[in-house]
Amino acid sequence: xxxxxSAIPERDSLWREIxxxxxxxxxxxxxxxxxxxxxxxxxxxxxxxxxAAAAGMLGARVALIESHFLGGDCTNYGCVPSKALLASARAxxxxxxAARYGITSASPATxxxxxxxxxxxxxxxxxxxDSAKRFQGFGADVFFGEARFENRNCLRINDQKLQxxxxxxxxxxxxxxxxxxxxxxxGYLTNETVFSLERLPRHxxxxxxxPIGCELGQAFRRLGSExxxxxxxxxxxxxxxxxxxxILLRRFQEEGIQVLLNATPIAVLxxxxxxxxxxxxxxxxxAGEQRLACDRILIAAGRKPNLxxxxxxxxxxxxxxxxxxxxxxxxTHNHSIFAAGDVCSRFQFTHAAEAMxxxxxxxxxxxxxxxxxxxxxxxxxxxxxxxxxxxITAGDVQASPRRYLTYTxxxxxxxxxxxDGNSEGFARIHVERRGGRxxxxxxxxxxxxxxxxxxxxxxQQDLTVGDLSAVIHPYPTVAEAFKRAADQHLxxxxxxxxxxxxxRYFSWRRG
Length: 511
Prior knowledge:
23% strand, seven-stranded mixed β-sheet, five-stranded antiparallel β-sheet, alpha/beta, 511 residues, FAD/NAD(P)-binding domain, Enolase-like, domain 1
């Protein structure tokens, strides 16, 4: 990470106190290695913490190594602070839109320092669960420092060698910084520094149209910043359903967010250092070049694996630009070493890291043969509306059109969405043409992340579209849209020739 990304000075806060007293305590003395470990876990993010806690509680001799702060990206720079910021942004939007519901209210005014104070207070509350002493209590030896493999069954941490029977690499990822002329000198934000801002940006340029860029872009717009999103892609959220991307683009445009698609940032000029204002970003697109004046640039253009310090070659572990190479049981080329979480998976989510950690504990410690391909991993982008997905995608369906059927229920025809005034969105299910098994689903709604679990269960348990249609939902709920989408499958099975036959049957029944 460039030094410019950490140039923003930190003030004393509860969050800083929690980090320095719990997540990487001042004066921490690493334990003396206790002979050979059943399991050494490298990385103290979600995957590493879950692995170490489970192994320790089961009685294994386990070591947990972290080079920075326990809690990883999620607690320190990701899900936890971002969702706190999004909650404040939603509150501001609710005040702004109150007139739609017959409520007269003044325009919201953002006290950004109070927003940050709330964010830090809540982050500190949650982060306490990741403390070094807590994991000591689970039976893990907690080490702080850089881990480096010495050979296939040994690594070095500071001045100690740790022998292991099995090891797990769970070092996560960091922001990938694109090649933009003069970006390093003029400075930029990433998700690792944006939550340290104490002043609301006047104009924030977000580079990247994925989940991080979309969530934070909308949040800062709702809090009062001018926002421009620049993405090389032809649409926002390229992994999601194209119809979902289109809805989000319309919403962003309605809220005053400028979105530049198929655009490449090529240079930035301005004062040196991220904590200075006055930047001029040059962007190239099909329409030519344009210059964007801004005071902050947020890089949200993908992730890179944290592997540089590990000396993987000494351990016989292979990796590429995307991360550690693993098989379906999460084993590396050295079968004594596993990997879990963002560092080895295209599903870079906290819940995916936890699921993989549970799998790794069984496979590494007990010789189980659990396969990661059997996991049904959903994802959700927490914009407004939220966009959630599970199972096969619209791209998969397009690639195999004869294999799948797709059913969609628009929220404009869903009573609860109409009553709530949030009827832009849809529930969509993909089912196998032969047998009707539920294979995938997308949901665009204010509560999509809460409702998608029903579809995860349906896919995981090999339920059919008929099973889904038979589920009784409370009325009125937005999630009922999935049931109504499934009903379409049953209705589609009615053929024109059936109705005359049924008329004759009912006539006969009447006597």
